[in-house]
Specification:
By secondary structure, the chain is mostly helical. It folds into two domains: about 10-130 and about 225-253, no CATH class; about 145-220, no CATH class. It has eight helices and two strands; from the N terminus they run αααββααααα. Strands 1-2 form a two-stranded antiparallel sheet. A hairpin with a 2-residue loop joins strand 1 and strand 2 (about 95-100). The termini are far apart.
Length: about 250
């Protein structure tokens, strides 16, 4: 099956750290980024996470393709926040409309955008550095409800199948000149989207039937986790201490 998710090199430096430790550190870093009122800590976290992603073998283009949507959301937040505030920075008159950019609103929007970018970069680092199966095993070890873990597993399986189907249909449409113009492109995209919805229902029925034939009784087996070693605990303590100290320094505490 075509892999719709990216996987880093198997021998990267994060592979020596247990997935449960990586998951806990990622959640801790995201909480710190969200709770930071300034922009220094989220910016540093974004830079460090991006550097770590490049260090484990992910290409720049692949990384920023997955970061594009969060960055667009961040830019939208900056624009919206810039239109409200107390300190006017610039004013434009367009016909009967007057647009004012406020400095305090822009700074608040930049802070929110940096939190979004930092949080998403941490999640991408976690996703790139471990397999989806290892991540589900770590969630089960943290006593995440089994129903949620199974839903995530089914969703991942369905998305992979639909991605492969969409890729096949898209290339078939391109070979038949389905995207030669904007009009043909919208029409081909509409056909593609409608067909994928129908295929999603067919895929769910086929998956349910296959699981029932294989004796599915409402519980999927999950791999057992090994015992955490001293290296895992030391890595977690070192990371938590470093992130906590950086957060306090950037917060002025």
């Amino acid at each position: 099956m075509h892999q719709w998710t990216l996987k880093a090199q198997s021998d990267h430096f994060l592979s020596r750290i247990d997935t449960r430790v990586r998951l806990f550190c990622a959640v801790f870093a995201i909480v710190l980024a969200i709770s930071q009122s300034g922009m220094i800590f989220p910016a540093v976290l974004f830079i460090v996470s991006s550097a770590a992603i490049f260090a484990i073998g992910i290409r720049v283009r692949q990384y920023f393709l997955r970061l594009a949507e969060p960055l667009i959301i961040g830019l939208t937040v900056i624009v919206i926040k810039s239109l409200a505030g107390n300190e006017a920075l610039a004013t434009w008159q367009v016909g009967t409309w007057q647009f004012t950019i406020f400095q305090d609103g822009m700074l608040a929007g930049c802070a929110l955008a940096l939190r979004i970018a930092a949080s998403v970069s941490v999640l991408l680092l976690l996703a790139f550095s471990c397999s989806f199966t290892d991540l589900l095993t770590a969630l089960s070890w943290y006593r995440v409800p089994r129903g949620l873990v199974e839903i995530l597993l089914f969703a991942h399986r369905s998305l992979a199948a639909l991605h492969e189907e969409a890729s096949t249909m898209y290339h078939a449409q391109r070979n038949r000149l389905g995207y030669t113009s904007a009009r043909h492109g919208f029409r081909s995209f509409g056909i593609l989207a409608g067909t994928l919805i129908l295929r999603a229902f067919d895929q769910s029925q086929a998956t349910a039937l296959a699981m029932m034939q294989r004796g599915y009784n409402g519980h999927l087996p999950v791999a057992d986790c090994r015992r955490l070693c001293a290296c895992d605990f030391c890595s977690a303590i070192f990371f938590l201490a470093g992130m906590g100290a950086l957060w306090m320094m950037t917060s002025g505490i």
